[in-house]
Amino acid sequence: MSGSTASQALHNRFDAIRCAELERLKRKLTGFTDADREVVHQITTDIVAALARGPEQALTAGSPSIAVEALVRLFALEA
Fold it and tell me: What is the model's pTM?
């Protein structure tokens, strides 16, 4: 897996976890308006982007294959 592919896979993995957690916590959001839900969506999307930013930058900066492989294994990434 190339660094850029791993970077996208990492972001996709984080976003899938975000979506699954929002679905799991759906009952706690029942009193929220559509606007409130959109704010929660945007905040959690921004958090995912912030968490993934460092590893993504490292992966796209021509990182050694061992670093890419470590992230692939650590986060169980799929191409």
Answer: 0.78
Query: What gap in Å lies between CA 40 and CA 70, rounded to an integer?
Result: 32
Each residue's pLDDT tens digit, 33-51: 999 999 999 999 999 999 9
Closest-CA residue to 13 (of 77, 59, 79): 77
Residue type at 14? Answer: F
Identify whether the C-beta of residue 10 lies closer than 8 Å to the C-beta of residue 75. Answer: yes
Long-range pairs for 14-18: beta carbons < 8 A, 24 or more residues apart = 14/48, 14/51, 14/52, 15/45, 15/48, 18/44, 18/45, 18/47, 18/48
